[in-house]
Request: fold
Amino acid sequence: MSDLTKKSAAELAAMLAAGETTSVAITQACLDQIDAVDTDIHAFLHVDAEGALAQAAASDARRAAGTPASPLDGVPVAVKDVLATEGLPTTCGSKILDGWIPPYDATVVSRLKEAGLPILGKTNMDEFAMGSSTEHSAYGPTRNPWDTDRIPGGSGGGSAAAVAAFEAPLALGTDTGGSIRQPGAVTGTVGLKPTYGGISRYGLVAMANSLDQVGPVTRTVLDAALLHEVIGGHDPLDSTSIDQPLPALADAARQGAAGDLAGVRIGVISELRGEGYQAGVEQRFDEAVALLTKAGAEVVEVSCPSFVHALAAYYLIMPSEASSNLARFDAMRYGLRVVPDGDPSAEEVMRATRDAGFGDEVKRRIILGTYALSSGYYDAYYGQAQKVRTLISRDFEAAFAKADVLVSPTAPTTAFKIGEKLDDPVAMYLNDVATIPANLAGIPGLSLPAGLAPEDGLPVGFQVLAPALADDRLYRVGAALEAMLEKEWGGPLLAQAPALGGAR
Ligand code: GLN
Reply:
């Protein structure tokens, strides 16, 4: 493995700016690493070597001319396959979109291109972003670089594994109920879900519009802030995009890394621990909280009593929105078309196509959502769930009156074995118990590595939550914690990862 693949995006950007390397060299090193490890990891559904190298050469020309397009110009990135990429396949991990090549770029993808980041390819995911393990991909699972018998989290397991296995320094994910943060937690990477409306959803294939957000997947907190600054900010093409400037995110990360948290109030959420949380996860979480206190933060306990209903509310709201969104896959407009024998009607073609094209989890959620929205049940299910959603927002408001940021473990356990929860949807859903409240309330959340659980030696995630529009607080607190933890570990956590990906 080339040394270049081990560098953070900020380090690569500094090397590029100093003329110490080229984007072509970095991009080639990533492609070589993909060649070396992706047969085992399966983080990518599609690799665009030619396109990435051409973009890298163009970046090198800009740098040589002294006109880089952005601080990250030339640093390669991988993109979750739920984001539309002009000319590159976009499957959402589903057979129903097999062969679909979008005629346009998602806004976040155009922003990557405008900023000069070569796009390495598209990453694997649970079908239509439904899942917590990437086992629901129609193209086979992604494997966790820490232990290839284990899941990399989901739905964005491909993006997290690509970054953890040094195949890409940066990736984009999407988070509807935790799909950036939970894979980050179980792979020892950093992931951020922004404030709802903070990063454009235009060209993100919708699962649940009121919850979905795009965000950065990286190896350091500063890298997440740098990528967030490239993709974030107002987009007139997304009607839910917030029309105001982003806070200074990378500056907040740099300030945090200096280590001073004096005056910062940190609220530990009492409902997001205890029963169901692995002992080693709680242990690493408590140690991280103790470090924050050492840096001058004031730690308080906060209670969010409605959180116990968050998972139930999510699994009504999300399938309701998804059942409506997925109606567009009708065999007429995109991808797959299955035509039964004889002289089938349009409805028969749709039925055969949807039957063959959607996997079990997608069908389960379409049925659940259609039922929850049906007249007679709407008030009892969807209506009630929306009321719970309001209560969760009020819990957050009350908690943020006492604390500047809230913290919890990102996921209740470390990475589980492939196949372990596949036949038990509720066990699978429980992985997102700590991440879902932020999506329901539209607030931002960050996950960063907190260490390895003593019982299994696997990564534990630490979650930081902030009020809407205060994403900068996540970067400040996250970078401070990261700096203190890395001092204890003697370097990044991923340096302790097993040999796959060449990390050991
Ligand atoms: N695991 C959650 C689900 O299955 C969240 C998915 C996501 O954030 N895309 O819905």
Summary: The chain has two domains: 3-304+406-496, 308-388. Residues 3-304+406-496 form a domain with the Amidase signature (AS) enzymes fold (CATH 3.90.1300.10). The pocket of glutamine is lined by residues 129-132, 155, 175-179, 207, 318, 432 (CB under 6 Å). The mean pLDDT is 96.
